[in-house]
Amino acid sequence: LFRLVISRAREVVLATNSLQAKLAYDQAVALQSEAQERFRLGPGGGNWDVSAKLTVQARTRAAESISAARDSQQNETALLRRLERATELLDRAHAAMGQTDRQTLEALYESARRNLDRAWEFYRGLQYRAAMKLANQVERAAEKIQQAVNRDAQKSENYERQVENVQRFMDQVRQQTADCDRPQVSRLLEQAQRAFDLAKKADGEGRRDTARRALQNCWELADQAIRGCTGTEESGNGLRSEEPTSELQSRITISY
Question: What is the structure's pLDDT at 101?
Answer without folding.
Answer: 56
